[in-house]
Amino acid sequence: KAGVTQTPRYLIKTRGQQVTLSCSPISGHRSVSWYQQTPGQGLQFLFEYFSETQRNKGNFPGRFSGRQFSNSRSEMNVSTLELGDSALYLCASSLAASPGGNTIYFGEGSWLTVV
Amino acid sequence: GDSVTQMEGPVTLSEEAFLTINCTYTATGYPSLFWYVQYPGEGLQLLLKATKADDKGSNKGFEATYRKETTSFHLEKGSVQVSDSAVYFCALSEANSGYALNFGKGTSLLVTP
Fold first, then answer.
1. Taking CB atoms and an 8 Å cut-off, how many pairs form between chains A and B?
2. Nearest 10 degrees: CA dihedral of B37, B47, A34, A100?
3. Residue B44 sits at the chain A interface (C-beta within 8 Å)
4. B29 DSSP assignment
5. pLDDT tens digits for B3-40?
6. Residues of chain A in Cβ contact (below 8 Å) with chain B
7. How does pLDDT run across A8-53, given as a tens digit for each residue?
8. Per-residue DSSP letter, A106
9. How many other C-beta atoms can be found within 10 angstroms of the C-beta atom of residue B56?
10. Do the beta carbons of residue A107 and residue B45 sit within 8 Å?
11. b vs e for A73-86, b when ≥16 Cβ sit within 10 Å of the residue's Cβ?
12. End-to-end CA distance of chain B
């Protein structure tokens, strides 16, 4: 069974540009969430989607957005990139419609460097 | 708000030593608790979880017991191996935060031969 797949794995962008990251969840999983990992702030929750609807959102500026497609695949977009957006972006998926206590499986992440 | 506090390390142990990584939490409701592990250059892997008080999660020789009275979820392993070298994250999720995972800062573990 394939795990959570994220693309691209590594990318370098320039300040002011925008970036789109993609995530394919485990087959059958309908919940997809995104996390940002930085050395300073650690792991922080960005947002979660279920059945194409944003169900939960973390405390990030509006430059960070996401969406989910009917096949459960998800994308996140960061516009007007800042140096501080350099991070590992992790996508995770889970099976159950009702959250809480569910096992969340993570992908290997997309490493974004903003120069 | 909810928070997770864990010893930051780095923790350096010799192979076959006993491991304890402390984790305490604050939560407004009744959280589920998790330990995730991150190997160098990789994403997070769920190591174990517990969903209610007094539950014990276990996997690959690691154990942690959900202690509501001390709001703790300490990770233990009786005999570590070099392959256990990684960063370990304690996390909680609960209804008040829409079940998003709230992570501690992570504890780096290095096991030497």
1. 56
2. -150
3. yes
4. S
5. 999 988 899 999 999 999 999 999 988 899 999 999 98
6. 4, 33, 35, 42-45, 48, 55-56, 58, 90, 92, 99-109
7. 999 999 999 999 999 999 999 999 999 999 998 999 999 999 989 9
8. E
9. 10
10. no
11. ebbbebeebeeebb
12. 41
Please tell me the distance from the alpha carbon of residue B8 to that of residue A76, in angstroms, as a whole number.
30
B46 Cα distance to chain centroid: 10
Look up residue B111 and give its two tokens.
């096991």
**Plot region of A109 (φ>0 → left; ψ -120 to 50 → alpha; else → beta):** left
- Taking residue B112's Cβ as centre, other Cβ atoms within 10 Å add up to 11
Is residue A85 within 8 Å of residue A79, measured between CB atoms?
no
Token code pair at residue A74: 């998800």
Beta bridge partners of A66: A76
Amino acid identity of A37?
Q
Q: Which two tokens stand for residue A48?
A: 């979660």
